[in-house]
Protein: Transporter
Amino acid sequence: MIAGMWIRSTMAYRASFVMTALGGALVTGLDFVAILLMFSRVDSLGGYALPEVALLYGLSATSFGIADLAMGSAGRLGTRVRDGTLDTLLVRPAPVLAQVAADRFALRRLGRITQGAVVLGYALLALDVHWTAAKVLLLPVTVVCGGVIFSAVFVAGASFQFVAQDAAEVQSAFTYGGQTLLQYPPTVFGKELVRGVTFMFPLAFVNWVPAAYVLDRPYPLGLPQWAAFAPPLVAVGCWVLAGLAWRAGLRSYRSTGS
Structure:
């Protein structure tokens, strides 16, 4: 209902919406332009050719765009905690998390999803892959699960803001920063970093691990082959932990000044 209100408000100025969405797509697309500039000087990056890096980029950008559309508004929770406006959400007959997600719902974020999907489409056309039914089915599952994983990170970051009210930038380091990290092959990073985003913050299951199966490449850290099909389990586990963190944060809330 709240999201619908913001959508109707946005579509009342359709030309403005189209220009804003296109502008957002162009701005986020600069990340891929940077990758193209790199490949104008090198033939491969960490052993990955341009279409392979484009696959990593497309998967992470599309998944992150879905999460940003659904849960991006959660990054402003710290402001609501500081000024006490979170209290208005507590008295409404609707889940607080759903209200936080729908607050100032920005349909213009579709531009990020579109831009990521365009790069993903290019990668699928340019790649020389022996496609099987498992690989074809794995791609949409990976995109959806990646969106769920990133959404869980948004919720976990919002939960932390109940305690540290000025932690929006900390949250961004794991959301926007994590998405930027995943645009590049795991082979360009140190093993400790790869281990951290595989076992501690399992962002590697957004694209690195399933993409390794699609591209017939060695898995990061020598993971078993079945790990490529683990994103649904990882997504569920992330949401369970994020949900517990959200409940703990909400219970600790004591109105303005807490």
User: Anything to note?
Assistant: The chain has a mean pLDDT of 85. The CA atoms of residues 50 and 254 lie 51 Å apart. The radius of gyration is 19 Å.
